[in-house]
Amino acid sequence: MNFVLDTNAVSDLVAEHPVATALLAAVAATDTVLLSVVTRGDLLFGLERLPAGRRTDNLRIKLAGILGALAFAPVTPAVAEQYALTKAACERAGGRVNDNNLWIAATVLTLNGTLVTRDKDFGLVAGLTIEDWTV
What pLDDT sits at residue 115? Predict the structure, then answer.
């Protein structure tokens, strides 16, 4: 199984959330935990917004450790096609999901994976399997 971590799931790992870290440690060796390159961009943007200082430096070190340990799913032509289908379906259903989240959802759907997130907006995406690793 492919577990794709959303931005807030990685933030939970950086914050050393006990349930999230335990569930990550319990992932079977036959499963894969990865990130969308879009999530990587979200996380790095979040760091860039923070003021310089020791706290930001510590967050940067923790995040670098996590990013260095995980594989990344690229935006492929198949992901782009899934993005278009997913965005159109959400609009037809009257839902609005931000574009970065739609790219992440399209990545997960293309991989037949499970999205790890606390973000309720992803519930608007039909067919998306979601787990919250903080409960």
Answer: 98
